[in-house]
Design brief:
The chain is α/β, with parallel strands linked by helices. It contains 13 helices and twelve strands. It has two domains: 2-101, no CATH class; 110-373, Alpha/Beta hydrolase fold, catalytic domain (Rossmann fold). The chain has helices at 2-8, 82-101, 146-154, 181-195, 207-218, 237-253, 255-265, 274-281, 287-299, 306-310, 329-338, 352-355, 358-373; strands spanning 13-25, 29-33, 45-50, 54-62, 109-115, 118-125, 131-135, 158-163, 200-205, 223-229, 316-320, 342-346. It is globular, with a radius of gyration of 24 Å.
Length: 389
């Protein structure tokens, strides 16, 4: 069907938008939509071209105007019954393409380094001097943001995903001091040192968002900008306590059950959906490992102080959403107002950047372009409280 369509449907003209949907799909879909539906084409879809391997590109186009109708605004006559079949094929193909995009297969580099007796793991996607270091959420790992990293690498950025201690493939110390928020920030700076990166945009989601704020306070000269998704500030403390305190008590007092779950979870094969595999890693932790991470969250600072946040003067993109009591939108809004150079981007849900990321990824890429197009602002080393890590 795809080969026939490719031969019979002329190429669209006047392309208006184009976006990369995924890599390593077995079918690419080029869809053109008519500004008006016709009886032969009730979907408004006038052509689908399928075939080939590699990246799928979806394009919206204005159909070519028929001879003699230029400037009249008339809808072109339907050319053949094949267009109705093309429309049906497109309706079926679009969900399939979105599902296929979840299976991230683009190549990346893995590495490890040692800091203070701990071996930490990281992934590098892409290359070049425009670097984003992005940190996962609590009890998750680098897999959570692998699709985002690959999409940004395709746009010319280098993205480094770090597994913090106690997470993913990194060592899992069983003492709380290694899991304080300020300790995590220190490990991010150590990663920059290891990779020879003078300065980077630093960011993360949830736990990673707060870690990135701590990095900006500890080592301001190493931070070119901040990408903060779902920060956890003062308004989130009650909700976080309702979730994490029972978790901590559970891993302490139900350790045999947690250990059994971990043993079973480690036998579950990977799904190849990176964000889902990241979620599954949460259940592979031994109770003592999970308890140390949760304990560290409670004994250390959750976020920089109000005064320190006001002193962070780098460009910042804050992403928040309104359907999560652990990451309330009020925290994202307040942080945006507190940081001198921040702007707020509202996500539709906690899942948008993982499931349907095109809109947010485009906004993030534009933000990174802006940050790296501006000359670095000279700042005295240690200008914020805490100095260098």
């Amino acid at each position: 069907m795809g080969a026939v369509a490719q031969l019979l449907t002329p190429p669209p003209s006047h392309l208006t938008t184009a976006h990369l949907t995924t890599a390593h799909l077995t079918t690419a879909h080029l869809t053109t939509r008519s500004p008006r539906c016709t009886a032969a084409d009730p979907t408004g879809i006038v052509g689908v071209v399928t075939g080939g391997t590699g990246s799928g590109v979806a394009t919206t186009a204005r159909p070519p105007t028929q001879a003699g109708s230029a400037g009249t605004g008339e809808t072109p006559e339907p050319r053949s019954w094949l267009h109705a079949l093309h429309g049906l094929e497109a309706l079926v193909a679009t969900p399939a393409a979105r599902l296929g995009a979840l299976f991230e297969r683009r190549p990346f580099e893995e590495g490890t380094f040692e800091v203070e007796g701990l071996r930490l793991s990281y992934e590098r996607h892409g290359e070049g001097p425009r670097v984003l270091v992005f940190v996962h959420g609590l009890l998750l790992d680098a897999q959570l943001s692998r699709r985002l990293a690959a999409d940004l690498a395709d746009r010319g950025f280098q993205v480094v995903l770090l597994d913090l201690p106690g997470h993913g493939k990194s060592d899992k110390p069983r003492h709380a001091s290694a899991h304080r928020m300020d300790s995590y920030a220190h490990y991010v700076v150590a990663l920059l040192d290891e990779l020879g990166i003078d300065a980077a945009v630093v960011g993360g989601v949830s736990l990673g968002a707060n870690v990135s704020l701590q990095v900006a306070v500890q080592a301001p000269t190493r931070v070119r900008g901040l990408l903060v998704e779902m920060p956890v500030l003062e308004w989130a403390v009650p909700g976080a306590a309702l979730v994490f305190l029972p978790m901590l008590l559970g891993v302490h007092y139900a350790a045999p059950l947690v250990r059994l779950v971990a043993r079973l979870a480690r036998r579950v094969p990977k799904t190849k959906v990176a964000s889902l595999d990241s979620l599954l890693t949460m259940f592979t932790l031994e109770p003592e490992e999970a308890a140390a991470v949760l304990h560290g969250m409670l004994v250390g600072p959750i976020t920089p102080t109000y005064e320190d946040r006001h002193a962070i003067d780098v460009p910042t993109l804050v992403i928040g959403h309104k359907v999560d009591f652990i990451h309330p939108f009020t925290d994202a809004d307040h942080l945006t107002r507190q940081l001198p150079k921040a702007r707020l981007l509202e996500a539709h849900s906690i899942l948008e950047l993982r499931i349907s990321p095109d809109r947010l990824t485009a906004e993030i890429a534009d933000f990174l372009d802006e940050v790296w197009s501006e000359p670095a602002t000279p700042r005295p080393f240690g200008s914020a409280r805490g100095g260098s890590a």
